[in-house]
Amino acid sequence: MIRRLPSMQVLQAFAATARTGSMTRAADALCVTHGAISRHIRALESQLGCTLFLRAGRQLELTAAGRELADDLDRALRAVELSLAGAAERRARERQSLHVNVSPELAAAWLVPRLPQLREALPGLDLSIAASTEDPDFARSDLDVSLRYGPAPFTGYQCLKLLDDDIIAVCSPAFAQRHAGMTAADAAHLARLRHARFRWSQWGAAAGVVLDEPEDGIVFDCRALLIEAAASGMGLALTRALLAREAIAAGRLVQPLAASFPASHNCYIVWRGDNPKQGLIRRFAQWVREAAVRG
User: Fold this and answer.
1) What is the architecture, at CATH level 2, of domain 96-164+265-294?
2) Residues in domain HTH lysR-type (predicted)?
3) If phi over 0 gives left and psi between -120 and 50 gives alpha, with beta otherwise, what is residue 180?
4) What is the pLDDT of residues 200-238, one digit of tens each?
5) Which residues are CB-contacts of 286 (< 8 A; sequence separation ≥ 6)?
6) According to CATH, what is the number of the domain 166-262?
C-alpha cells in the first residue's frame, strides 16, 4: 500500500491524459503547460513503478496498468465530486435553517398560528422549533434564536423587543353574556382564574377598584392552560394581550373590561452576536417583531 498518495494535481493530470489520449489536450483542459503534464505523468509512473502510457503515433494509449488505474481513479474522483457537492448542499441548507427556542405558551398561542405567513415571507427557511421553559443555552446546543420573556438587557447577547405588552382580563363569550354589563367592581364577586405571575390587585388598581386575590380556585403556572381554561368558561383570567390575540380574533375569548396594566417582563428575540447566520436571524427577528406589532 502506498504510504504517500500522489497530489491531486498529479492525479488530475493522469485522468485528463487518459481521457483525451494526449498530453497537449490534457494541458489545455487543465489550463497548464504540456511540460507540467509530462512531469506529473513521469512522477506518477516513478512512484508506481510501472508504465501507464504507450505512444501510438501521435496518440497515447493506456497500458493494462494504466487502464485499471484510470477506471479506479474515475470512480474515486466522481465519489469525491459527489461528496463535495453534498457537503456544499448541506452547508447551503444550514445557512437557510434556524433552530428556535420559545416558551410553550408563546409557541402555541402566537407563533404557530403565524407560521404560514412566516413561510410566505421567508421562503426556503427551514425552521426547527423547540418549546421549553428552560433558559436557552446557546453554548451547548445548535440553538440560533430564542423568544423569551424577561427584563432587558440580556447581557452578552443581541436582543430585539417585540413590543410593550399589557396584562388584560379575558373570558369566554358565554361567560361575558351571563354577566352582561359587568364592571371592574363586579370582578370581585365573579369567578377569577389565578396565575402565578399576575396579580388581580394590580389589575384592580389599573381599573380604579380594590381587588384581593381569590382565596380559592385553580392556580395556573402556564399561560396557555390559563387561556384554555378561560375559553372554556371557567371565569375571568389575566393574560398577556399578545397571547390572547389569536383566541380573541377567533371568537374564543373576549375582553369584557378595558382596564389593563403594563407587563413587568416583555418578550424579546435573543441571539448570539457571533452567530454566522446574522443576516437570516435579523430577517427572522424583524418579521416576528413586525407581526407582533401588527397583531
Assistant:
1) 3-Layer(aba) Sandwich (3.40)
2) 6-63
3) beta
4) 999 999 999 999 988 877 888 888 889 999 999 999 999
5) 160
6) 3.40.190.10
Measured CA to CA in angstroms, residue 172 lies from 62, 94, 175, 234, 253 at distances of 85, 43, 5, 8, 5
CA 103 – CA 148 distance, rounded (Å):
6
The closest alpha carbon to 282, from 294, 272, 267, belongs to 272
Vertex 125, ends 147 and 222: CA angle to 5°?
Answer: 25
Measured CA distances, 196 to 125, 131, 218, 219, 239 (Å): 36, 20, 10, 7, 11
DSSP secondary structure code for residue 111 in this structure = I
Q: What pTM value is reported for the model?
A: 0.64
Q: What are 283's three cell numbers?
A: 430577517
For the record, the C-alpha cell of 110 comes out as: 402566537
Residue range(s) occupied by CATH 3.40.190.10 in the chain: 96-164+265-294, 166-262
